[in-house]
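>> Question from a student workshop board

For tomorrow's exercise we were told to take the sequence and the ligand below, predict the bound structure, and bring the output to class. My setup keeps failing. Could a helper post the expected result so I can at least see what it should look like? The ligand is 2'-O-acetyl adenosine-5-diphosphoribose.
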Amino acid sequence: MATPRFADFERILFFTGAGLSAESGIPTYRGKGGMWTEYDYEDYACQRAFDAEPDKVWDFHDKRRAAVAACAPNDGHRIIAEVQRERAGTSVVTQNIDGLHQRSGATDIVELHGSLWRVRCDRENIVRDDTSVPMSPRTCTCGAYWRPDIVWFEDSLDHRVVRRARELLEGCDLLVSVGTSGIVYPAADLPRLAMQNGATSVEINLEDTPVSPLYQHRLRGKASEMLASMR
Ligand code: OAD
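>> Workshop helper replied:
Here is what the output should look like for this input. Compare the format with yours to find the bug.
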């Protein structure tokens, strides 16, 4: 089957994961060198850990902020932003929290798992952008800690964000999944909505994943190169 071309579709949806940012030098979560092979999420990425030791959890997130701030968007991010400029119906639903889509010029990004660059008052639930590295001050004027506005393990996804993602997936005519292991739910279920509505489906990854059999087209290789092949 010939590789689908962006030019043949009107409403393209990119569903992205950590593999897209790997070429920028940001470690993925699983597999060799993956974040969760080095760090235990129970110590660094769940509300219980934050309640017990907020400064330890912030030290970890400050390290991530510094690492991501030192990285730049790669050609994969740039191709997605270009396709969005060329085709008005293009949208991005990402599991990434690194902000690299925004830095590459893409807009209207649905961030399923929140952002490393937003903080939320742990008491009042106020959310604000914050790009300081290290994040400072760690406490809100109310005295409670700010926490990263990230969907940690055991947190629920924001239902408004999920609703927007569902609408976009249901409405697209081309679904391009890029660099995700497809094992983290409920995010991993969302691409099915596009397939059920008849969208052409493409999975870009270095290797097969548990959801690969659902896709009509499986492109194997680096995200930037496989995206370039669809131009
Ligand atoms: P994973 O680390 O689980 O998977 C990354 C995927 O990218 C793997 O399937 C790799 O084979 C693939 N990959 C790596 N480098 C690539 C490259 N250069 N080009 C193409 N593919 C490549 O990351 P996610 O699926 O994004 O959640 O993980 C989902 C969620 O689990 C994350 O959002 C995060 C994590 O826990 C939260 O932080 C809440």
